[in-house]
Structures are given as structure tokens and as C-alpha cells.
Sequence to fold (127 residues):
Amino acid sequence: MHTTPRLRGLARLTFGNPVSLVYLALVVAAVLFALVDMVFVEHQDASFAGIWAVLLTAPTIFPLWFAGDALWSATGSPSWYLVLTLVVAALVNALLLGLLHRGLRGRPAHRGAVVSGGWHTQRHGDH
Fold:
């Protein structure tokens, strides 16, 4: 069993179509916006700049956060886990968008022959 073609197919669905690429670019832009806000802008209270990245990765991020809450119930999820969930949720959403794009795009119908009862009516007439 070769896993390499399967991994290539998943990577193509995740990164190889315009819908997934635009989505991932939006997530990266939201994360960069939050990082710039966190590093360069002073706030008296907490900033909500990171909410855009969370909203873009919804709904996938929420079950991952709930899993983190279950694992680290007393102390809360560590920062590295929150970042990891953001990355995983973005990649899962990009994969699902790739599947949706492939499904909606579909394959063009063959216009030459009509299959009826196993016979190509173009060559054999109607049955």
C-alpha cells in the first residue's frame, strides 16, 4: 500500500485549488494582523484582533478547544496547544473547501454518446 499518492491527493485538495488558497491566505492575514496588533499596539485592555483568525477557522476550532479544556481542565490549555489548534483547524477547513470545490466543479459531461442499457446509442441506435 502506497501512502504517498494518498498524501499527495490530500495536499492537492488542501493547497492545490484557488478556493483553499484564498482561504488560507485570509487566515494567514488574520494571524499576521493579530501578531502586529499584539507586538506594536498598546492597549489598556485586551485586544480582540485575534478573533478574526478564530472566526475564520470556525467551526473546526471549537471541538479542538473543547478537547484541550478536557485535557487541561485545571490549568487551562497551554499557548502552544491553542496555536496548534488554529493551524489544524485551518488545514482541515482548507481540505474541506478543496473537497467542496472539486465536487462543485465536477467533471464535464461527455456530450457524444448517451448510455442506455449498456449500449452507446450513438453507434447502435435507440433500444
